[in-house]
């Protein structure tokens, strides 16, 4: 396992980048702890795979360094980094059996046959293929081949890091859950440093100790699932994490009060914010009422998703989402929404502003 340090790292696919906009991966300075599981989460084109390929050695960065446990590996080829990587689409040897594919990384490193056999059996059980070890890989389905790829990545115990680039894309939904569970168990049992690229928030939040949220080539927040949900550092995090995502309201703020349209609300704390100021509130922290104080809104539709209801509201021409308990009645004459103070986040030019007196994270 290894601590991975990204030092002044950035990358452009252009030969002579002239501005920050020319960089697919904007400058990063981060330490990723030895033995932790990280997920790189973001929309397509945000720089996730570029960063993973730099860490693995498949891509040399335009600037900066990559260090494993303090050793500079920026120019080192992939083979010298002692990593295992699983790609989005399966890479298997069709002429080999399932057992031969799983054993190949170990045989290639001169591991004794007596050590290989039990390790292959254990990994085959993890991926649900212990009864297919003697089958040739040719003719297997795409999801079966991807399970072999995952198994081959997991079969080695001595790697510095395990890297996964959207490995469950071709796997059926039920097996995705099974394999995520197995990856978590593998991490608990062996403590590998793991980095998992995905655009699926469910995969990221259920797999990782820390989620690295990327947007437009930049890391906008690294945090636990709870931190990302409760205190999104950037409006993109609020939008991307959660279903539905965070509601955003343009506002004017003075101290502990905010004005949204013609309504004034109490923020529960004092803020100093300049630029484009917005209030972010997740659907779970919005309540609906009839008359009195609050922001004028009307119910436009209700979506019953089983465990709860998603109430869609029109607030001055903007759609607002609220989550209500399954059995909670929605008054037909409801015309106001209000926010729970503990669910309020303030943003200036898309970045979170801490309330006065709150310690920096």
TrEMBL record:
Residues 4-241 form the ABC transporter domain. GO terms for cellular component: ATP-binding cassette (ABC) transporter complex, substrate-binding subunit-containing. It comes from Pelagivirga sediminicola. It comes from the Bacteria. CDD domains: ABC_Carb_Solutes_like. GO terms for molecular function: ABC-type ferric iron transporter activity; ATP binding; ATP hydrolysis activity. Belongs to the ABC transporter superfamily. This is ABC transporter ATP-binding protein. Keywords: ATP-binding, Cell membrane, Membrane, Nucleotide-binding, Transport.
């Amino acid at each position: 396992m290894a601590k991975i340090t990204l030092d002044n790292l950035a990358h452009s696919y252009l030969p002579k980048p002239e501005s920050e906009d020319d960089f697919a991966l904007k400058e990063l300075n981060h330490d990723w702890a030895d033995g932790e599981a990280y997920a790189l989460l973001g929309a397509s084109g945000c720089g996730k795979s570029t960063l993973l390929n730099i860490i693995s050695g498949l891509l040399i960065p335009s600037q900066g360094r990559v260090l494993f446990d303090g050793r500079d590996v920026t120019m080192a080829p992939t083979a010298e980094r002692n990593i295992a990587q699983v790609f989005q689409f399966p890479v298997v040897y069709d002429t080999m059996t399932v057992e031969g594919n799983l054993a190949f990384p170990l045989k290639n490193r001169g591991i004794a046959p007596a050590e290989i056999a039990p390790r292959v059996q254990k990994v085959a059980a993890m991926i649900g293929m212990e009864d297919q070890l003697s089958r040739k890989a040719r003719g297997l389905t795409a999801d079966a081949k991807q399970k072999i790829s995952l198994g081959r990545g997991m079969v080695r115990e001595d790697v510095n890091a395990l890297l996964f680039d959207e490995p469950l894309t071709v796997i059926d939904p039920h097996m995705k859950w099974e394999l995520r569970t197995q990856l978590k168990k593998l991490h608990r049992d062996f403590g590998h440093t793991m980095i998992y690229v995905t655009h699926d928030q469910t995969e990221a939040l259920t797999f990782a100790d820390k989620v690295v949220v990327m947007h437009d080539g930049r890391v906008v927040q690294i945090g636990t699932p709870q931190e990302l949900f409760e205190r999104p550092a950037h409006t993109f995090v609020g939008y991307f994490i959660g279903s539905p995502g965070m509601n955003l309201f343009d506002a004017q703020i003075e101290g502990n009060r905010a004005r949204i349209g013609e309504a004034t609300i109490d923020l529960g704390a004092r803020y100093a914010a300049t630029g484009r100021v917005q209030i972010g509130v997740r659907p779970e922290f919005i309540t609906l009422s009839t008359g009195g104080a609050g922001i004028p809104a009307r119910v436009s539709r209700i979506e019953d998703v089983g465990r709860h209801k998603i109430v869609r509201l029109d607030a001055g021409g903007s759609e607002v989402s609220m989550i209500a308990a399954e059995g909670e009645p929605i008054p037909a004459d409801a015309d106001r929404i209000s926010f729970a103070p503990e669910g309020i986040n303030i943003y200036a030019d898309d970045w979170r502003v801490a309330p006065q007196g709150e310690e920096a994270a």
